[in-house]
Design goal:
Blueprint lengths: L1 H8 L4 H13 L3 H14 L4 H13 L3 H24 L1
Length: about 90
């Protein structure tokens, strides 16, 4: 798979982990998908999109309590983005 090859070449690109997480989730390999989401978040913890994607994954997989915790992080990150985009 092309994305897996790209990770072997340079594993620092969080977007590749996110894309792979979506692919594994779509094929029902949820444990692998969750690990990939978390890896991307550890690489770039302030990336609101990564948190948002993981939150959607949690909601789809029925992990509602974990989703609620993630939602607080998402809202905080989006506020920071909004503040820096429009007020600075």
């Amino acid at each position: 798979m092309l994305m897996e090859r790209s990770l072997r070449l340079d594993g620092r690109f969080g977007e590749s982990y996110e894309a792979l997480a979506a692919l594994f989730a779509a094929t029902g390999q949820l444990a692998i998908a969750e690990r990939l989401h978390l890896r991307a978040i550890r690489m770039r913890p302030r990336n609101g999109d990564f948190h948002n994607n993981y939150g959607a994954f949690l909601q789809r997989t029925g992990k509602r309590s974990f989703f609620n915790k993630r939602l607080k992080i998402i809202l905080k990150l989006n506020f920071v983005f909004f503040y820096f985009t429009f007020f600075l």
